Amino acid sequence: MLLETVHGAARAAIQGAAPVAVGGAPHPLQGTVAQWMWALPLLPLLGFALNGALAVLGAARIGPGDPSAEGHEAHATPNVGNEREPTGHAGDPEAGHLEGGAAQAGPHRFAAAATVIGPLVLLAAFGLAVAIWAAMVQAAPSTPFIEHYFAWMPVGDLQIDAAFQLDQLSMTLVLVITGVGALIHIFSVGYMRQDPGYPRYFAYLNLFVFFMLVLVLGANLPVTFVGWEGVGLCSYLLIGFWYSDRANADAGKKAFIANRIGDFGFLIAMFLLFANLGTLEYTGLAAAAQGIAPGTAVVTVTCLFLLLGCTGKSAQIPLYVWLPDAMAGPTPVSALIHAATMVTAGVYLVVRTSMLFALAPGASLTVCVIGAVTALFAATIGLKQWDIKKVLAYSTISQLGFMFVAVGAGAYVAGIFHLVTHAFFKALLFLGSGSVIYAMHAAYHETHSHDDAQDMRNMGGLRTKMPVTWVLMWIATLAIAGIPLFAGFFSKDEILGTVFERARGSALSEASWLGIPGGPLLYAVYAICLAAAFLTAIYMTRLMIYTFHGANRTGEREAAHLREAPMVMTGPLIVLGALSAVGGFLNDPAWLPIAPSDLLARWLEPVTGRATAMLAGAPGAPGAAAPTEADPRLAAMLAGIAAAIAVLGIVVAVVRLKPGALRPTRDPQPAVTGIERVLEHKYYVDEAYDRVIIQPTVALSRNVLWRGLDGLIDGIVNLSAHLWRWVGAAGSALQTGEVGAYAWALVVGAVIMLGAVALRT
Amino acid sequence: MVAESLFFSAVLFAVGVIGVLTRRNAIIIFMCVELMLNAVNLSFIAFSRLYGFAGQVFVIFVMTVAAAEAAVGLAIIIAIFRHRQTVNMTAINLLKG
Which residue from B17, B24, B93 is facing A737, i.e. has the nearest CB? Predict the structure, then answer.
């Protein structure tokens, strides 16, 4: 009966959510530039169509053999011996024209057009986003602005519209996606220009941005799900962009399959929500949530299934394994999809459905625990990776763990804040590493060497060769490590501070998780996060020291060819560097004597305020209790601890690491033992998954399902086929073609019937 | 009188049926069919004494149809004979399943 009333409330909310808002007054954004929000995703879609047409036209002219496959194969073959790192040359920025000789594919003949279209649609979308943002700042709406375009799935009770929703949360994400996306598109012009698949690359990248914008703008779960699946598709396409190399194609499939497991959870959650609340609109869910008591089992289960979806997309334990392999794609793709935007979709979804998570402290604590364990786990692996992109991949997983801790602890603003700053500094780190790989590759190309251009053992001393990249990468490193006044410091500190505050007393500390009381659990999460932050500082400093400091290990001849990337690549790096340096002032804490403070928190208040208050307040009065006023002295002290941990990590790394001891990959490597060996092999998780899940699944499919069950089912089907064949043969034997026989049958039948009639009467 | 007529009709009909079932020559089978038709005619006549002359009208109909049928039937038999050089029904079994 509880759910009955909830049904009614949800219906009412859906009615009220029409463009004309509750009370008859038009929405403040009605009639402003915000009405053009449909153009946000359509601009990248247009880019996809144009670039896709260029790619198809170019391929049709050259002939059936795909030029990119040809070009890359010619390059890949000599590297077959380098099996330790299957993706070693995956970040190959110049796949086509390497290794000289017959397979000269060179740049695509429509490269100039793709160069204009690809980044231009993103810049246009960013311009529109800024205009809408300006309108939104002026109007300061307290309710989301929803536009219904058409009825998408009108099936009985299930009324799903193709509708977009603009509120402060989706606006923030749109700005990040189009802004950082535009920078990465520009960087790609330099990085991918020589690739024979250049228009195809921009087509995929534009399509990705389209789906990502659909994901964040969707006004209901199914529309978000369309974007969710679409970005997964583009991720798959771009990871396997150099598909002629088997390892890259496999990495794409791995990402796709791991994400399917998560999507299963997302789908189940949607079914549960529709079955229990009767709506999938976010506004409807928010209205329905008000009629549900906190801790209701159905909400907890739904949230756990949503969480499963989020762990897949955002690469959290247990589904994180695809992200390191996803580094097989071009480096700008890693920056855009696998660092700045797509992988944060899970964080976005938790914040978007915060009205449900706020009702399920148990599920929220689960989010927290998963995030904390992932943050520490990935950070330890990052300590011992040699591939520069792999370090950044594990770093991304670890930072996503921090975001999960934040949204799990009900610090939704802190989670989004870290999402934004992480987009800045991690995009910068990836693009910087792309610039390094580009230079390394060019040097190896000049000397016709086949060494691994992504292995840090082959780098060293790049400081003098690439000063711009060096300075910008240090800014990003200081930001991610959490050195005060850089972007990452504020966001990470806010996460840590909020977790500590929640542990002291909140709805979460009152709740329990698997029998463990929430308070001690959150203190443990805080401690784990501190440890992860410490390791973050270490592995990032390690990356910087091994790449840019010490003596150069690239090779004597190659070193002469190492030079800074062109302006089109360093330009976006400089912008991101500036954002990484000052991005933290989006939401600087109140204890810092710099005004205005808490900008982002006040901006997001209409979206996340209620849910935050519910998780912060006492469980007795949901929504009513205001969060306990944070003690500024405690907050400052916690920030001091976080900063000290970061500095300590950098100092430890500088003191302990000796880049002089490293040998280039062409030389024999010293044997690693013990824990280092375990870390270098990533805790053998891939191997364990292979043993525990993949091999049994394959064996089960092959022996039980294929040979056993398939045989049984086939047998039943064949048996019925044989039976009816026999019946047919018998019937056909009756038909002799002799009229006499038929006449006999006729007469005998007639006699029997007449006899029966006669005997009855 | 009716009973005797019906008995005679039944005997005639049985003779016709047995002829159709046992003989192989199409002409004889055909004649036996005529026998059966006439046995039925006899029954009609007999019953018309009890139920009015509608039975006698029917007999005219049956004889008319039988005449037409004889013409068509004999024509078919001749056509079969020309085609297969036999009117033995056991040899004509093209419609075998």
Answer: B93
A728: nearest CA in chain B? B97
pLDDT digits (tens, 9 = 90+) for A359-369: 999 999 999 99
Residue A61: the pLDDT is: 56
Distance CA A212, CA A233 (A): 11
Is B15 an interface residue toward A (CB < 8 Å)? no
Nearest C-alpha in A relative to B14: A747
* Third-level CATH fold of B2-91: Helix Hairpins (1.10.287)
Domain ranges of chain B: 2-91
3-state helix, strand, coil in chain A (%, to 5): 70, 5, 25
- What are the boundaries of each domain within chain A? 681-731
Q: Which residues of A touch B97 (CB under 8 A)?
A: 731-737
A740 shares contact with chain B (CB less than 8 Å): yes
Predicted TM-score (pTM) of this structure? 0.79
Q: Which of A231-240, A447-456, A467-476 has the lowest mean pLDDT?
A: A447-456
Buried b (16+ CB within 10 A) or exposed e, A509-521: bebbbeeeebbeb
Cα torsion angle, A175, A177, A178, A179, sign: positive
Q: Which of A261, A388, A368, A384 is nearest to A320 (CA)?
A: A261
B contact test, residue of A732, A735, A739 with most B CBs within 10 A: A739
Is the ipTM, as predicted for this complex, more than 0.90? Answer: no
**Chains A, B: CB pairs < 8 Å:** 30
Q: Which residues in chain B (30-89) have CB-CB distances under 8 A to chain A?
A: 89
Nearest to A509 by CA among A524, A492, A495, A496: A524
Confidence (pLDDT) at A231 = 95
Token output for A393: 């991949």
Measured between beta carbons, which residues in chain A are less than 8 angstroms from residue B24?
A: 740
Question: For residue A501, what are the CA distances in angstroms to A386, A483, A492, A617, A638?
Answer: 38, 22, 14, 11, 10
